[in-house]
Amino acid sequence: MAVDERLVQSIVREVVQKMQCSGGVSGMHGVFKDMNQCIAAAKEAEKEVRILPMDRREKIISIIRRKIRENAETLARMGVEETGMGNVGDKILKHHLVADKCPGTEDIYTTAWSGDRGLTLTELGPFGVIGSITPCTNPSETVLCNVIGMLAAGNTVVFNPHPKAVKTSLFAMNLCNEASIEGGGPDNIACACEKPTLETSEIMMKHPDISLLVATGGPGVVTAVLSSGKRGIGAGAGNPPALVDETADIAHAAECIVNGCTFDNNLPCIAEKEVVCVESVADELMHYMVNEQGCYLANESEQQALIKRVIDEKGAPKRDCVGKSAKVLLQYIGVNVPDNIRCITFFGKKENPLISTELMMPILGVVRAKDFDDAVEQSVWLEHGNRHSAHIHSKNVDRITTYARAIDTAIVVKNGPSYTSLGFGGEGFNTFTIASRTGEGLTSASTFAKRRRCVMIDSLCIR
Description:
The protein is an alpha/beta fold. It is 42% helix and 19% strand. The protein is globular, with a radius of gyration of 23 Å. Strand 16 (434-435) and strand 17 (441-442) form a beta hairpin. The protein has a seven-stranded parallel beta sheet with strand order 11-12-13-10-9-14-15, sandwiched between helices. The chain has a six-stranded parallel beta sheet with strand order 1-6-5-4-7-8, with helices on both faces. It has helices at 5-20, 35-49, 54-70, 72-83, 88-101, 139-152, 166-182, 198-206, 219-226, 250-262, 279-292, 300-310, 326-332, 353-356, 372-383, 397-407; strands spanning 31-32, 111-115, 118-126, 129-134, 156-161, 190-193, 210-216, 232-235, 241-244, 274-278, 295-297, 343-347, 363-369, 389-393, 411-414, 434-435, 441-442, 449-457. The chain has two domains: 27-236 and 441-453, Aldehyde Dehydrogenase, Chain A, domain 1, CATH 3.40.605.10; 241-427, Aldehyde Dehydrogenase, Chain A, domain 2 (3-Layer(aba) Sandwich).
């Protein structure tokens, strides 16, 4: 049942006004003026969370899931209004995906060895208080999936949200604390400063009560976490290529690639950022993209105008362009297109900055390759060693295997849109923290737990 537009906007305004009262702390659970206060509150809550039975943790998580579903449209609208990125419809889907497919306590498992010399168990225990840095691209989604996984493992968490998404992030965090209280757990299972800054991030990374750091964002913040001297999980950048060879179903490949590229205006880090296509089918692929999938074919002068408009002097995407729709991006350069245009495309060399740069915009350059081997080589170059995500459209299993081994990413999607890797239209669980840099891959509750071995000698084996 659709939510009334005026009602949703009224709710968003009410939430923002509440967060602005008394400097943003009034009425919000887990929000403090000082980072040391945040950590102290989370540390106190952790004493209780650590010993909560699994069924109690799961009860709280089930309430968090309910609150996500109930507030999915509000969270989506808050995210778009605060950051200016993405679109409401896709963000609603992303929040339902977190509610339905983010693992909880079922991911906290025990491994047992039983034999003549007794019984050995490996159990998953909490780290304690986790410090988490979250992005503006998927602000509430990242906060919510992190809280579910970290709580399931028996941790509490202190967030340092991106300043451009602080209201949305704190609202999501507040929902989690409300759920804990409603489920009989402590307040402050998730905490943050009302005004997160680089300084609050520094305090969090150096604080002795923070046992584990988790960074979801660009290469700079991930590098800072990995240089902190603490155990770090780094979910960094990617520039996922989509390879298409001559054995693929070309019409299907075009549909999947454009659907994945345009989902939430290309904000997901796993989304297709460029295409590398074998020469013999490149024109056919472009035909389907332009004539059936709502792509606008940009000419050379329009490409140059886009480079000047969307990329800054340092070679990075301009923030005011990230997450904008294809129609808006074209309007920026004086090109007006109908509403059905959802992606900008063109043929170009791999060195073209619109292709080689991770833009997080629905701009999808297509690189021609002489053959499959050349396509693999160019795709590996374009992925830039981030080891994040890559995609391929081919009916040749040996080629798919060769590509997956060569590109060595945490995610490889075969013959489907990129978002299937997050459980949307595909199998598997969901997360918005993909630790490509440090090797954990798609994180879940077990990622945020320590492995502990318990050994009983010469007893408890009854076979």
